[in-house]
Design a protein that fits this description.
By secondary structure, the protein is of the alpha+beta class. The protein is built from 14 helices and 17 strands.
Length: about 425
C-alpha cells in the first residue's frame, strides 16, 4: 500500500485549515488525513480535549505513554460515527507561551494580551481564563499583525517558533499542553479496503505513533538552540508564585472540559498515569538566555598523562546515555561506529582522514578533559583505568551527535601515539 502526501491540502492562509482537511477526508476528496488533535472540538468531537487540559501533560514520557496506550484508542474512538476512522494519535512538541516584545510569565503579563493560537475551543478557553484574548490568524497576515503591534504573543513549539511571527520571548518552565497529531481515514475510503489492507494501514499507523514516542524531541536541546539565536530571543523562568497563580486561573477550563463525562474520565486517567510516572523536570533557561561554557576547574595536569592511541566502538546503551546527558537523542546510524583517537602532549587527532578538520588541542583540569576544536570546546568528565582505558562523560552544552560519537564507548588504549598531529 502506497500513500501519496499532498501538502497544504486545505491551504494555510485560513486559521481553520485543519477543519478543511477533515471535511475533505469526510467528503471523499482524500482517503487519509493528518491534523492537530486540538482542532476536533470545533467539529463537536470532544474526545481529544483532555490533551489540551492546561498544564496537565508537560513532558514527553507521559505523552508517549498516552499516545501508545489504551487512552489513545479511547480518544480515537470519538471519531467513530462522525464520518472518520481514527488510526493513530502521534505525539509531537510541547507548546509554550511566547511573547512578541516581552515574556508572558505572570497573570499581569497575560492580562489584556492578544495571543495568537491555533483554533481550538479548549485553547481559546485557556487564554481567556488567563486574561488574554485568543487571536486566530494564519499565513502571511501573521508577520504583518506582529509588525503593527496587533499581536502580543503566541502559543507555539520550540523549534518552530520564528522572529517574523513574534515568538521570541519564551517562558521556559511553563509548557501549556502538548501538540498531538491525528492520523485518520474517511469512512467510505476505509470501508473499501479489504481486511489485509486494513491490517497493513493499522500496523503502519501504530508504528508511526510508537516511533514518534520513542524519538521524542529533547526540550533541553531545543531550549539551547533557541538561546543560541541570540537577541531578540530571550527566555525567563516564571516564579513559583506566578506558576501557581496561572494554574489557579486555569481551573475554570477544567470545569468547562469536565462537563463532558468522557473528557472528565480521560483527565482523571491521565492524572493517574502522571502520578505513576517518574517526575520529569521542566527545562528552565537563565533569564539572560545565554549559553555559558561549562566551567572547568581543578588542578591542571600534564596532558602527556593520557598520551596514546585509542580505539572505541559506539554501543546503543552508552550512546543513549551520552545523548541523554546533553539533552539530545541517539541517531541509530551512529550505533556501531568506530572511533580512533591519537593524544600526544596536548594535541589530538581523530579519525583516519581530514586531519585538518578533526584535530586540535586538549588539556586536563582535575577530572575533566577539555578539547579545543577550532572555535568549539568539548568538555568531558573522565576516568582512566589501570590498563589505560578512558571513560568519558559529556558535559553540556554539547551537540548530541558529538556526545554520542566521542563517548559512546570506552576508549581502549591500543598503543603509544604513532601518527603525526598537525
Amino acid at each position: 500500500m502506497r500513500v501519496r502526501v499532498v501538502w497544504d491540502a486545505a491551504g494555510q492562509d485560513s486559521p481553520g485549515y485543519e477543519l478543511g482537511i477533515a471535511r475533505l477526508v469526510r467528503d471523499g476528496d482524500f482517503e487519509l488525513g493528518w491534523m492537530g488533535a486540538r482542532a476536533w472540538d470545533r467539529m463537536g468531537i470532544k474526545s481529544f480535549q483532555a490533551l489540551q487540559a492546561p498544564f496537565l501533560v508537560t513532558d514527553h514520557e507521559l505523552l508517549g505513554r498516552i499516545t501508545t496506550g489504551p487512552l489513545a484508542e479511547r480518544m480515537l474512538g470519538g471519531l467513530d460515527g462522525q464520518g472518520f476512522v481514527g488510526l493513530a494519535l502521534v505525539p509531537e512538541h510541547l507548546r509554550y507561551a511566547f511573547g512578541a516584545k516581552r515574556p508572558l510569565a505572570s497573570p499581569d503579563d497575560f492580562a489584556g494580551a492578544r495571543v495568537r493560537v491555533k483554533p481550538s475551543g479548549a485553547t481559546d478557553a485557556l487564554m481567556r481564563a488567563l486574561g488574554a484574548t485568543p487571536v486566530h490568524i494564519s499565513g502571511d497576515g501573521v508577520a504583518d499583525a506582529v509588525a503593527k503591534g496587533e499581536i502580543d504573543g503566541a502559543e507555539a513549539s520550540l523549534g518552530t517558533n520564528s522572529t517574523e511571527e513574534g515568538e521570541t520571548h519564551l517562558t521556559a518552565n511553563l509548557p501549556l499542553f502538548p501538540k498531538t497529531l491525528t492520523l485518520f481515514a474517511g469512512d467510505a475510503a476505509y470501508n473499501r479496503l479489504d481486511e489485509d489492507q486494513r491490517r497493513t494501514i493499522g500496523k503502519a499507523a501504530r508504528m508511526t505513533a510508537a516511533y514518534a514516542a520513542a524519538h521524542a524531541p529533547s526540550e533541553t536541546a531545543l531550549m539551547r538552540d533557541f538561546c543560541r539565536e541570540g537577541p531578540p530571543f530571550t527566555a525567563v523562568a516564571a516564579s513559583s508564585g506566578d506558576v501557581t497563580a496561572l494554574e489557579n486561573a486555569a481551573q475554570p477550563v477544567y470545569t468547562q472540559l469536565e462537563r463532558d463525562p468522557d473528557t472528565k474520565a480521560l483527565i482523571h486517567a491521565i492524572r493517574g498515569l502522571k502520578a505513576a510516572s517518574p517526575a520529569a523536570a521542566v527545562a528552565a533557561s537563565p533569564v539572560s538566555c545565554e549559553n555559558e561554557t561549562t566551567t572547568v576547574s581543578g588542578h591542571e595536569k600534564s596532558p602527556s598523562a593520557v598520551n596514546g592511541t585509542y580505539h572505541w566502538r559506539v554501543t546503543e546503551e552508552r550512546g543513549r546515555a551520552a545523548a541523554r546527558a546533553v539533552g539530545g537523542t541517539l541517531d541509530e546510524q551512529d550505533v556501531g561506529a568506530l572511533g580512533k583517537m591519537t593524544l600526544r602532549d596536548g594535541k589530538w587527532l581523530m579519525g583516519d582522514t581530514d586531519p585538518e578538520h578533526y584535530s586540535g588541542t586538549y588539556a586536563i583540569a582535575g577530572d575533566r578533559l577539555v578539547f579545543e576544536w577550532g572555535e568549539r570546546t568539548l568538555t568531558f568528565e573522565f576516568t582512566r583505568d589501570g590498563d589505560g582505558t578512558i571513560k568519558l562523560t559529556p558535559l553540556p552544552p554539547m551537540d548530541g551527535g558529538d556526545a554520542v560519537i566521542w563517548t559512546g564507548g570506552p576508549w581502549q588504549r591500543v598503543g603509544p601515539p604513532v601518527r603525526d598531529i598537525p
